[in-house]
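Bench notes, bay 3.
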Amino acid sequence: MQTIMEFNSSQVNEDVWISNLGKNPSLAMLLVNGFGKLVLLHNVSYLQENLFCNEAKVLGLCGSDSQAEVYRIDPKSASTSLELPVPTWRDLKGLQPGTDLNSIVVPDQNPPVARFKNSLWIPPLVLTTVLEGNSLDPAVLIPALSLKFQEFDKSSSSVKACTILRPVLEYLWAISKKLVPATISAVEGSSDAIEWSSRQHFAYICAPSLVSLPPPFPVPPAPGTAIPSSPFRLMTDELRKIREANEKQMLNESQLNDTKKESSGWDKLPDMIQNMILRK
């Protein structure tokens, strides 16, 4: 938690910003898009130029499951440092759900000063709270995150979320006042980005869901319940059906020939008559 928030220091330049991301892939971040809206990106990673990637780029996923879109982020605009006066921590921390953010104002004298960047790296505690809230409205997120921070602090004797994660609430307030410039970002559709997205989905979305659930305990089927067959069993059953059908057809033809012979009366003729007919 502490390490991730240190990545947001105003003293971190673009090169260090990229270096931190390269050493810690799959981080989550908040930023403002070109429409002034808050955006949450997860699994943000830095792709260096190589044989399969013709240029270095920062990519992140927006959304969940297999529908998440790939976004390319401009590191220069994302790492631009900001310094803004903000409301007191007491007011931000005490904001109640449904309260208008306009009720919180910056003090006229000696206001607190927040220092962060256009984008904000967030730890898992913030990420899960935002996802659970199912909203990117700062007025909804600030009280929800404040409550989560206070709950965390009650169970932690060393790490204090309300101290370390204070910039998150200040960043959200600044967004609500449209004080945070947009970070240049756009949907990326290049082949290397799509390949990267597939790897991220498998490693962090698909694979965990597959291994998180243990295989069901085998329960004997109830009497009369059909047992699902394996592919080999199905193949064997099909071959057996074909063999039985062939045998049935041969049996029918044999019975038909026997019927024709019986109906002709040949076996009822005396041997002398049969020999006379055969000589002819």
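Next record in the batch:
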Amino acid sequence: METKFFVKYDGISKYDDSSVVLHDFGESLVAFDTLVKDVGHIFRIQTEIEIYATSHREGSHIVDLIFRIHESFNSLPIDSVEHLLEFLKIAGEQLFENASRFFSDLKDFHKTVNDFGAKHPIDIALLALIIPWLFRIARKQRNNELPVDSKLSERIAKELYKIIRKNRFGYFINPIVNETAKSIEVSSDRKFIKNTTKIDDGNFEDYLGTDTEILPELIDGNEYELKGEITSLKSTRGDSLTFQYSKKDKSYNLDLLPPSDKTTKAYTQYYKELVNISALVERHSFFKKPKLHLLDISLNQYQLDFKNDESSNHSVD
């Protein structure tokens, strides 16, 4: 069984709305594939779920996807009545009511999932219709193991909570975190009018794991002395330098903005050099990399220890 699904990425640039960095774009789609498989596991759908990109439309980055869920002939890939009811409670109210009546009939308590499927065909590809709804619920489930919606069982709520805490949604929305996309929409509607969820600056933090803050010690509006390397000078969309800053064995490429009266050309001598800078921090979220406004810069000079150097050169007779 298969169905269509759609993902739209709106570019961050006012000059080119479709400009999303391809690296972030590709990683996001790979993360979405993983996320869908996580959701399939939550519902105990025991079969292969495949997602294929079929086309890429102009304007914003809009990707048409096919969800393909393999099933055996006359067999549903959910083997537990409990798990089937949990799935149908979210996927379709009428199907859920039919299933509840079917399995509550005490005349035959040996009824199986496939017995119900034989009388009431179920398209497991309904999973694709559930995804936008689950994205909306995930925002509320981030800080709660208990169900935040009556359609969720306690088991599903707890497992959804866990994949949020593991930052599974976060990998998908990395283009927003990295500020290469201003929003991402997921929908079962090609026109993104109904059954659509939009993630943007106003709600993206609700999808992130709690341990994903980026350099939280750098506070907005404060001035800091930092050491790092100037790895690039950019002037395509406003002048900035890339300042590579390391903290606890992890490196961050931060935007370093020159004073208003200077351009990157004034700093070419620092390219590929280790430097000391004084900078003012600008940030609006602890889950995005801070921007640095340059106040002062100098080469980082290595200090030679001549005393130790001399002693190491003494020969032993």
